[in-house]
C-alpha cells in the first residue's frame, strides 16, 4: 500500500485533501484510481487508512477509514554526521532513515570536506525530500529531523544530556566495544558521532570526551564513514529496542464511522 506523509492541515476531519505535488504523483505516476487504498501519515504519530474518492488531474481526495498509532522505534537514535561529499552524505541520510534513526545533525569537523555552514544550507530542501521519501518507502511513522549544521564542539554540547548515551566510534579505540557499552546501559536516547574520511583528530576525540562522548570500537576492521554510520545505528537499535510488538487489531485502531 502506498504511503504519503502529509501536513496535518490536509486532513480535514474524515476527509484528506492531497496537495498538488502528491496529487500529481498519485494520478500521473502511480495511476491510482477511485476506490484504491493508501496510507496517509501526519508526522505527528498517526497513520490513516484512506480510500480515494476523487482522482483526476485537478485534485485527489480520500476518506479516512481508520486511524492507527504509527510504529516508530522506542529508542531515539540521533546521528551526528561529519559533512562529506554530497552523494555519500545523502546515501547515509537515506539508509539510516530506513534503519530507524530519529534525527540527523550535520557536523563540521577538522577533516570534513565541507568547512562552512552556509555551504550546505542550500541543500536542505533536497535532503529533507530524501528523508521524506526514505521514511515513506521504509514504513516509518515519522520523518527524521534534520538539524542545522554545527561545529563538532557545538554539536556535542547540544547533544549531551542526562538521558542520552553518547558514543563516538573511533578506529584507535581498542578497549571498549559498542557491545560492552550497550550491555551496561539501556537509555531512551543514543547519539552516534561519525567521523569524516581520515577520521577524527586525537584532539577532537579528547574534546568530545570532555563534553560527554565515549569512544567505542566497532571491531577489528577500519570502516568507511558510511559503513560505520549504518553499522552503529543498526547495532544500537538491535540491542536497545524491546521485542517488536504487533498491533492488537481493533484495540489500537480508531475506526471512522
Break the fold down into its secondary structure elements and pairings.
Elements: E1 3-5, E2 11-12, E3 15-17, H1 20-29, E4 37-41, E5 46-55, E6 60-69, E7 76-82, H2 86-99, E8 103-108, H3 118-121, H4 124-138, E9 145-146, E10 150-151, H5 152-159, E11 164-169, H6 178-184, E12 189-194, H7 202-211, E13 214-216, H8 225-240, E14 254-255
Parallel strand pairs: 1-4, 7-8, 7-12, 8-9, 8-10, 11-12, 11-13
Antiparallel strand pairs: 2-3, 3-6, 4-5, 5-6, 6-14
Helix pairs in contact: 2-4, 2-8, 5-7, 6-8
Strand content: 25-35%
Distance N to C terminus = 22 Å
Largest sheet: 7 strands, mixed
Q: Helix segment count?
A: 8
What string, H for helix and E for strand, traces the elements in order? EEEHEEEEHEHHEEHEHEHEHE
**Strand elements, count:** 14
Q: How much is the radius of gyration in Å?
A: 21 Å
Give the overall average pLDDT: 91
Task: Return residue spans where pLDDT drops below 50 for at least 5 consecutive residues.
Answer: 245-257
- From the spread of the alpha carbons, the general shape counts as elongated
Class from helix and strand fractions: alpha/beta
Question: Roughly what percent helix?
Answer: 25-40%
